[in-house]
Amino acid sequence: MDHIGLLASFPKMGMKYEDMTFMGNEVRKLPIHHITVFYSQQENKVTVLALWNNYQDSDNIPSILAGLE
């Protein structure tokens, strides 16, 4: 949870995730141990879009994130 809290101060610390957007802003990902946090920054806030267990099939990630917008 400490890493997720850092996103408020350092929203660019994660890597850009493909060419996906959420509400017109880029989607970023931050791997933390066996979880990857997918998030987006909008003006003065960071929205966590998904917490992904890295042991799951990663082929499903784009379709799950695309369904959020």
Q: SSE layout and pairings?
A:
Elements lengths: L1 H8 L5 E8 L2 E8 L2 E8 L2 E9 L7 H6 L3
Q: Could you please describe the fold and organization of this structure?
A:
With 69 residues, the protein is of the alpha+beta class. 20% of the residues lie in helices and 48% in strands. It has helices spanning 2-9, 61-66; strands at residues 15-22, 25-32, 35-42, 45-53. The protein is globular.
- Range of helix content: 10-25%
**Which structural class should the secondary elements be placed in?**
alpha+beta
Instruction: Please list the strands of the largest sheet in the order they lie side by side.
Output: 1-2-3-4
Give the overall form: globular
Strand content: over 45%
Poorly predicted runs are none
The separation of the N and C termini measures: 25 Å
Rg value: 11 Å
DSSP strand tally: 4
Number of helices: 2
What pattern of helices and strands is seen along the backbone?
HEEEEH
Mean residue pLDDT: 89
User: How can the largest sheet be summarized?
Assistant: 4 strands, antiparallel
